[in-house]
UniProtKB/TrEMBL annotation:
Organism for this UniProt entry: Cavia porcellus (Guinea pig)
Subcellular location(s) of the protein: Cytoplasmic granule; Lysosome; Secreted
Keyword Membrane in annotation: no
Record flagged with keyword Cell wall biogenesis/degradation: no
Annotated Gene3D superfamilies: Ribonuclease A-like domain
InterPro entries: RNaseA, RNaseA-like_dom_sf, RNaseA_AS, RNaseA_domain
SMART domains reported in the protein's UniProt record: RNAse_Pc (SM00092)
Keywords: Antibiotic, Antimicrobial, Disulfide bond, Endonuclease, Glycoprotein, Hydrolase, Lysosome, Nuclease, Secreted, Signal
Subunit structure: Interacts (via N-terminus) with bacterial lipopolysaccharide (LPS).
Lineage: Eukaryota, Metazoa, Chordata, Craniata, Vertebrata
Signal sequence, renumbered to the chain: 1-24
Protein name (database record): Ribonuclease K6
Length: 151
């Protein structure tokens, strides 16, 4: 009888070992994007443009949904990658993969307007430090740290 129970248990443990790393990575980027290229699409806007135009560029990949809010950093992707090389600390999700920019940067915050059925946004501009979650390429500690989430 113990033998009959062992196989399904081993099968479940094997599936758990395969799926846990996938759950830990969080939401997957749309087809055609790597986590870094999706981060760049969503959060890097070196030259400011209107929230409406910038959010339309993102929402086209969300299957008809409107992203409720988004922050655009007016820096290069390389600037954000450089932040990934700084000392890490605990993120809101309790992982220890967050890094804080050493200096404030210009950013645009886009928030969807509550009373619209369409994807209509209001924008505000600010200069603040940002926090970014970084992961090693291919989850290999020997590879470089890359930005994957803006806190």
């Amino acid at each position: 009888m113990a033998r009959n129970v062992t196989f399904p248990l081993l099968l479940l443990l094997g599936l758990f070992a395969i799926l846990c790393p996938l759950w830990a990575m969080g939401p997957q980027p749309p087809a055609g994007f790597t986590p870094v290229s999706w981060f760049q699409k969503q959060h890097i806007l070196e030259k400011p443009k209107s929230c409406q135009a910038a959010m339309n560029d993102i929402n086209q990949f969300l299957n008809g949904l409107c992203k409720r809010s988004n922050t655009f950093l007016h820096v290069s992707l390389q600037n954000v990658k450089d932040v990934c090389a700084l000392k890490a600390f605990q993120c809101r999700d309790k992982s220890t993969t967050c890094h804080r920019s050493p200096a404030p940067v210009q950013m645009t915050v886009c928030k969807i307007m509550k009373d619209t059925n369409s994807c209509t946004y209001r924008e505000s501009h600010t200069t603040e430090h940002f926090t970014v979650q970084c992961m090693h390429r291919f989850n290999d500690p020997k590879m470089e740290l890359l930005p994957v989430h803006l806190e």
